[in-house]
Amino acid sequence: MSETTNARGAILTAAERVIEQLGVKRLTIAQVAKEAGMSRGGILYHFASKEALIQGMLARFLEQFERLLAEDEANDPEPQGRFTRAYVRSSLKMDEEATVIFSALLAAIAYDPHLLDPLRAHLESWQRRTEEELDFTTAAIVRLASHAFWLNGLFAMNTFTLEERRRIVGRLEELTRPT
């Protein structure tokens, strides 16, 4: 991994910590620089603006989620519903490691909701893929329940234990299998 990639990753992690510890309103280039132990110019070298920083956070989330999806899909021996099950499992994994997505989403929503356009495009693509495997209604139910995991974490409203969430995921996975 290159020095630039490492620096960008450290900056994005610092931005996530700022949001997690201080709230999205305190996400500034100066605050991220302080958290990262860098100069403001060092941050701006890698991310030319706050908007670029938020775009970087969202891009990192999408890369991580796509990687999880690909891994889960590749490890599922049953073809019918494979992508949708991977989507459910990956959603739970992202819920367990929520900082990345939640920080990026909060920042984008607060700063400029149009920054969520790349996420919207991915969601449409993922929706189409689930509908290729399952009927529309089942695909929608499974996807929307997966999204609820994310949103509950985003707003710190998750009242389910990890074991309860895993049982819910198990049931969602059952919906993806032929009857």
UniProtKB/TrEMBL annotation:
Record's keyword annotation contains Iron: no
SUPFAM superfamilies: Homeodomain-like (SSF46689), Tetracyclin repressor-like, C-terminal domain (SSF48498)
Pfam families: TetR_C_28 (PF17937), TetR_N (PF00440)
Stretches assigned to the HTH tetR-type domain: 5-65
Alphabetically ordered keywords of this record: DNA-binding, Transcription, Transcription regulation
GO MF, one example: transcription cis-regulatory region binding
DNA-binding region: 28-47
Matches recorded under InterPro entries: Homeodomain-like_sf (IPR009057), HTH-type_TetR-like_transc_reg (IPR050109), HTH_TetR (IPR001647), Tet_transcr_reg_TetR-rel_C_sf (IPR036271), TetR_CgmR_C (IPR041479)
Name assigned to this protein: TetR/AcrR family transcriptional regulator
Protein's organism: Ktedonosporobacter rubrisoli
